[in-house]
Amino acid sequence: MEPEIKNPFEQGPYIQVAGFCDQVLEDKTGALSLIRIIDTLTHTEARPDAPAEMPPVTYRLKLVLMLKSGRARGRHEIKVVPELPSAETQPPLVMTVHLEGDERGQNVVADMNFTFTMEGLHWFKVFFDNALLTCMPFKVRYTRLQTTTLPLAR
């Protein structure tokens, strides 16, 4: 008989939202509106010398985590570790959250200027006090369009 695997987050914190978007609006009550939720970026190079492999492309996006406490209370560390399609990891984004328990929680909105160096599926692994909480996928596609200059007809 195999041992039962217990979810370390069975009693909190709970994930209300984990994703990426272009813009976040916050009203005076603290409610968030996420504008243009995205999980895919298509980068196009259209020129005569468009490279066969995708060149590095920096893209600005917002990382949004909305957590509800459950039984989790106090100060905790959130770490987001980007993992490239090659399985190589990048330096993490580290932040602190303060949880008050029950239905209360904390919204985390982080500006990211991330440089994608290869196409494919990137994973952003979210750790809560060094335990994996969730993973957020982000796909990068590269489209190459080699253009030519045609002589004008006379």
Mind explaining what this structure looks like?
This protein has strands spanning 14-26, 32-38, 40-47, 57-70, 74-83, 93-99, 102-116, 120-128, 131-146. With 154 residues, it is mainly β. The protein has a single domain, classed as Sandwich (Immunoglobulin-like), CATH 2.60.40.10. Strands 3-9-8-5-6 form a 5-stranded mixed beta sheet, with no helix packed on it.
Could you give the order of the helices and strands?
Answer: EEEEEEEEE
The CATH architecture comes to: Sandwich
- The CATH C-level name is Mainly Beta
Quickly count the helices. Answer: 0
Rg, alpha carbons: 20 Å
The end-to-end distance, rounded to whole angstroms, is 83 Å
Shape verdict: elongated
CATH superfamily, please?
Immunoglobulins
Q: Which percent band covers the strand fraction?
A: over 45%
What share of the residues lie within helices? under 10%
The average pLDDT score comes to: 91
Number of strands: 9
- Category by helix and strand content: mainly beta
Question: What composes the largest sheet?
Answer: 5 strands, mixed
Keywords:
4-stranded antiparallel sheet, 5-stranded mixed sheet, 64% strand, Immunoglobulin-like, 154 residues, mainly beta
